[in-house]
Amino acid sequence: MKIAVCPGSFDPITLGHLEIIQRTAKIFDKVIVLVMANYRKKGAHVFTAQERAELIRKSIKQMDGMQNVEVDVYDGLLADYAKQKNATAIVKGLRAVSDFEDEFQQALTNQKLYAGFETMFMAASTDNMFLSSSLVRQVAELGGDISAFVPTVIRDDILERLRKD
């Protein structure tokens, strides 16, 4: 069985994330969407890791072709998690060339930590290449419409947390 891990902070998950996950689910037997703590963003998350995982579960439940997708939470080295799950690949979405440098460094590090683990990069579609969780948070906080950026099923959860009175 070929297992892929799609890691991220997903704070919150966007339609861009879901596009990458759905495309990955067509390639691999099993996909684990892994909510991870981003050490650079410690304490800066709007949603807890468990809340983010639940938002992802609600989102994928509504989508076709996601029966082989599960969601997990982990706070440690991605390579260690991959070994535990016998994963063969990490799949990361790239929005722009600027994403590549950091992701490439992480890929090389993961390869050193776990030789059986490959990294695959998927280019975001032109519809989603501008989209990020931070953009969604900013638009929501300022009272904008995030309907085109996040799944409908979680839109109100996000707005409830982020909207200023």
How would you describe this structure to a colleague?
- This protein is α/β, with parallel strands linked by helices and 165 residues long.
- The protein has one domain: 3-Layer(aba) Sandwich (Rossmann fold), CATH 3.40.50.620.
- The protein is built from 6 helices and 5 strands, in the order βαβαβαβαβαα.
- It has a 5-stranded parallel sheet with strand order 3-2-1-4-5, sandwiched between helices.
- Strand 4 (89-94), helix 4 (97-113) and strand 5 (118-123) form a beta-alpha-beta unit.
- The longest helix is centred in the middle third of the chain and has 17 residues, at 97-113.
- The radius of gyration is 15 Å and the shape is globular.
Topology-level CATH name: Rossmann fold
Rg: 15 Å
Strand order of the largest sheet: 3-2-1-4-5
Indicate the mean pLDDT.
91
Q: Name the CATH architecture.
A: 3-Layer(aba) Sandwich
Q: Strand fraction band?
A: 15-25%
Shape: globular
What is the subunit organization of this protein? Answer: single chain
Separation of the first and last Cα atoms: 49 Å
Write the H/E string, N to C: EHEHEHEHEHH
Low-confidence stretches: none
Indicate the structural class.
alpha/beta
The largest sheet, given as strand count, sense and whether it forms a barrel, is: 5 strands, parallel
Which CATH class?
Answer: Alpha Beta
In the CATH hierarchy, what is the superfamily?
HUPs
Summarize the structure.
This protein is α/β, with parallel strands linked by helices and 165 residues long. It has 6 helices and 5 strands, in the order βαβαβαβαβαα. The mean pLDDT is 91.
